[in-house]
Amino acid sequence: MRRPFALIAATLLVGALAMPAASRLHPGVYWTHNDSDDGPYLYAVDSATGETVARLTLTGIGTPRDVEAISIGPGNKIFVGDIGDNLGGTWPYVWIYELPEPKELEDATVRATQYVVKYSDGPRDAESMIVHPKTGRVYIIDKNEDGGHLYEGPAELSASGGNVFRPVAPIGLWATDAALSPDGRQLAVRGYFGGIHYSWNGGEPKREGRLSVPLQGQGESVTYSADGSRLMYGSEGTESPVEARDVPGGDGGGGGEGARADDGKNTAADGEGGTVKVGALVAAGAFVALLFGLRRLRRRR
Questions:
Q1: Is residue 1 part of a domain?
Q2: Which end of the chain is more exposed for a tag (fewer CB within 10 A), N or C?
Q3: Is pLDDT above 90 for 186?
Q4: 274-290 average pLDDT score
């Protein structure tokens, strides 16, 4: 039985898995990372087997604080967003790391460039980072219960000083992840229970409609397949299943892309199919209720 992303090196990954970014150099391979304090590591995963085929150790950076996003830009550059802030926006700056995608899939130590990121309107929490596949410009969407904004970075990031990101467009969602299509024309943004599909519109996203987001226990990830025909939705935690959906308006063709995830019915590690059970509904509802409760507690302090 094929299990794309069903088992992603469960013996190695001790934190919560984040959604991968499709490799341009290695068809069928996705790059992913752990959440929070796992260390300066990236993992290459074979989407057909779920096996980790390489682990990269990043040097040239400080200690990662709350890694939340990964994206691949022009020239096969990997961007890692250490942009989370579970305390609701108390850190004066966050970081982005950039490194070349290795030509060989093997465990290696890779030197990365570290960029300091600040927001023009003050610190904030974020889990969504995208890199335009044509221009290489980096964008961040903040995570706000009442809806956030798309923040645009400078045309080129600077390693010698701060990089100020400025709000350029509202995003009507409590965003947990986002992705740009490989051609740079479509933007997908997801939250815990839904998602929105935008046309990129030159960096001023235009809302097109809702996304068909599967119900997941902690839905915090989305990415496009390498050919742009499918959106891949994931949750956190080892052995988490990934489910695929056709992109809005697409024909669902995958061109043989290995990450088609068994036509959207990706199996979990215990062999169960993609059917949502009552227990999953209860767990998901309880999780979101807990999030709202924690936010209210913070506001009262």
A1: no
A2: C
A3: yes
A4: 35
Place of tokens 């063709």: 253
Measured in whole angstroms, the distance separating CA 242 from the mean position of its chain's CA atoms is 13
Supply the CATH number for residue 134's domain: 2.120.10
Q: Is the pTM above the cut of 0.90? A: no
Q: Is the Cβ–Cβ distance between 127 and 145 less than 8 Å?
A: no
Whether residue 296 lies inside any domain: the answer is: no
Beta bridge partners of 108: 56
Domain that holds residue 141: 21-274
Residues 232, 53: Cα–Cα separation, whole Å: 20
How many CB atoms are closer than 10 A to CB 280? 13
The runs of H, that is alpha helices, within the chain are: 261-264, 278-300
Q: Are strands 52-59 and 108-111 parallel, antiparallel or unpaired?
A: parallel
Instruction: Give domain status of residue 145, yes or no.
Output: yes
Q: Is residue 2 part of a domain?
A: no
pLDDT tens per residue across span 21-73: 899 999 999 999 887 667 899 999 998 888 999 999 999 999 999 999 999 99
Strand intervals (E) in the chain: 21-22, 29-32, 41-46, 52-59, 69-73, 77-82, 94-100, 108-111, 113-119, 126-131, 138-142, 148-152, 162-171, 177-180, 186-190, 195-199, 206-210, 221-224, 230-234, 242-246
Predicted local distance difference test score (pLDDT) of residue 65: 92
